[in-house]
From TrEMBL:
Keyword Signal: yes
Signal peptide: 1-28
Keywords assigned by UniProt, alphabetized: Signal
Protein name, entry field: Tat pathway signal sequence domain protein
Length: 616
């Protein structure tokens, strides 16, 4: 393997190499002298990038050497397949000395070659007194070594301050080099040795997408009360600022702050290829210009407190592209992953977008007081069976921590449908949300494939009330695949079908404007028993009428309607309400021989009979 040996000169005159640095043994940082400007360069104290992640090329694919049993992260300048040295102790010693001198800025240089960086096998501890700066995404890289099984950056509260700063660098989580259990590469995907068919958390508590098992995962950035003690209670607030950071291939999440109190700010952050959720947040978190790309699970997960999303984007969530790294071939797995999975109140969105995700674009789960501008584009990938979005007809994997065998190609039962994953879903007792939703499909780009969502909105009929939603739904494909604004029925977790009349109840309990019209005015399909209509609105019945419900179904072509005033044809039923009473008016639309309408009304006892009224 030929490496580039262009030489750079760092601030202290030491020779750095873009592809190679002369192999040197790791050593603790030399004594740090106090700087009048409180700015300290790691290279001045002998801390240089010593790690590289070489790739193997197999046809048009590249993968790390862990696939063939070699170290993923190797020593720069040493013989091939020599594992990189652990620099975490000298880096932490360097930061501690700066803190003891009263604090300052620790600057880590690097190489323009992103494969060269600082190799660590223990967490780098962010101290309140020390701001950690790199020289940019394309220069400063921190790499998690093989088998580290820890997070790269963790916080540590100080005696007088809990403020942390990290910026201008790249974090390589070396996802495929971690060994939580023993990875088995002989299966279609990688499985954890000992995983049984049920895959219960009690037996393998190391799922990369489980926010409650963070101590078994490795994240790019982890903010918890005490990273050495999973049961430590929250003690005071932590304030942190993360800016200009890209996190690639972490085993868990790019960043996890949902277990810590305080205020955390993310600005200009990219998460790419996370094995778990992209970014997990909570407790007064501000995210601005943050993008999550290709996580195996949800893009953004919020589980407590409140958060503000400004100019954020999640795309290809649940689309597992790089299974070849563990012997799984090309795109073989899709998960029911949402772009945004929100289960806490008081969130705010401003220009937030979800595109081409396995499940919903936005899943708002039992949340209150969420305000925002949501753009859901071409999601519903898992349910989309069109060849343009799933050319190899691969099954999906449900997003369930209990039934999901890690990384295996196991299909769902029942199979998801377009109704299963609308662009935006309000689930459970979601209420008081004020949302502006732009929902659209995606035109075919190049050779494709791209999926698309069939429905803009999904509402759970039980408890989803008092929401103010404005929806604009458009089709960018061919006009044939957009079904409607709202799902006609919802598939519950048990697979049971929620009937259309229940969905109508959810409509009238929320104020929804769709393409400029109140959705409560939308025309709906009439139920087979017209007496079950209990929600005001306009209904269309097309089929045979049977007032008493005595005609066998096999003797009637098409749908058979019970308690119907006409023999059949196209009938419009308008149901209105006044002082607690419902009134229905049925009009035959396709029969000039019926010069009348039928009117009936309800009392406290029941519906009264139809009364004919002449059209004249």
């Amino acid at each position: 393997m030929t490496l580039d040996r262009r030489t750079l000169i760092n601030a202290s005159g030491l020779a750095l190499v873009a592809g190679v640095v002369a192999a040197q043994p790791a050593a603790a940082a030399t004594t740090v002298m106090k700087s009048a400007k409180r700015t300290y360069y790691a290279s001045d104290f002998g801390i240089l990038p010593r790690a590289i992640m070489p790739k193997i090329t197999d046809g048009n694919k590249k993968y790390s050497r862990g696939k063939i049993g070699k170290p993923n992260v190797q020593a720069v300048g040493a013989a091939i397949d020599t594992a990189a040295v652990d620099q975490s102790d000298e880096i932490n010693a360097f930061l501690s000395q700066i803190a003891n001198l009263g604090g300052g800025v620790a600057i880590f240089e690097g190489s323009i070659d992103q494969l060269v960086g600082y190799g660590v096998k223990k967490p780098i501890i962010m101290l309140p007194e020390v701001a950690i700066w790199g020289l940019g995404w394309n220069k400063t890289t921190f790499m998690l070594l093989d088998g580290a099984n820890c997070s790269v950056f963790v916080n540590k509260p100080g005696p007088g301050s809990n403020y942390h700063v990290l910026r201008d660098l790249r974090i390589n989580g070396n996802r495929w080099g971690q060994d939580f259990g023993v990875l088995d590469y002989t299966a279609p995907g990688a499985t954890i040795a000992g995983a049984d068919a049920a895959f219960t958390i009690d037996k393998i508590p190391k799922h990369p997408a489980n926010p409650d098992n963070w101590q078994y995962n490795s994240h790019g950035i982890l903010m918890v009360p005490d990273y050495t003690n999973p049961s430590a209670p929250i003690n005071g607030d932590t304030y942190a600022h993360f800016e200009n950071i890209i996190v690639v291939q972490p085993y868990g999440s790019a960043a996890m702050t949902s277990k810590n109190g305080g205020e955390v700010r993310f600005r200009n952050i990219v998460s790419e290829g996370a094995g778990g959720n992209g970014i997990q947040v909570g407790y007064d978190t501000f995210l601005s210009d943050v993008t999550v790309a290709v996580p195996e699970y949800h893009g953004f997960m919020q589980r407590n407190g409140s958060a503000r999303f400004t100019n954020t984007k999640a795309f290809w969530c649940g689309q597992v592209f790089e299974r070849w790294q563990v012997g799984g071939g090309d795109l073989t797995t899709r998960r029911a992953s949402a772009g945004y999975n929100i289960a806490a109140k008081n969130c705010q969105f401003s220009s937030s977008e979800a595109q081409n995700c396995g499940g919903e674009g936005f899943l708002i789960d039992g949340s209150e007081s969420i305000v925002g501008q949501l753009s859901a584009i071409a999601n519903n990938m898992l349910a989309d069976t069109d060849a343009r979005s799933n050319p190899l007809n691969h099954p999906g994997i449900p997003d369930s921590y209990v039934s999901d065998v890690v990384w295996t190609n196991r299909g769902t039962t029942p199979a998801p449908t377009p109704e299963s994953y609308p662009g935006v879903r309000l689930r459970g007792k979601s209420k008081y949300n004020n949302l502006m939703v732009i929902s659209r499909t995606q035109e075919l780009q190049g050779a494709g494939p791209l999926g698309q969502q069939a429905y803009a909105i999904g509402l759970d009929p039980a408890g989803t009330v008092k929401n103010n939603i404005s929806v604009v739904h458009s089709d960018g494909y061919d006009g044939l695949r957009v079904k409607d604004i709202i799902t006609p029925m919802l598939i519950a977790l048990t697979g049971a079908v929620v009937q259309a009349k229940d969905l109508h109840a959810s409509i009238v309990n929320n104020w929804i404007v769709a393409d400029g019209r109140p959705l409560s005015d939308a025309v709906r399909q009439a139920p087979l028993d017209l007496h079950t209509i209990d929600i005001p609105g306009t209904y269309i019945a097309m089929g045979a009428g049977d007032m008493l419900g005595q005609v066998p179904q096999d003797q009637v072509p098409g749908p058979k309607y019970k308690n119907h005033p006409f023999a059949g044809g196209m009938v419009r039923v308008i149901c209105t309400e006044y002082n607690g009473h419902l009134v229905m008016e049925a009009t035959r639309l396709d029969d000039a021989g019926a010069p009348y309408t039928n009117i009936k009304f309800s009392t406290e006892a029941n519906w009264q009979g139809w009364v004919q009224r002449s059209r004249a």
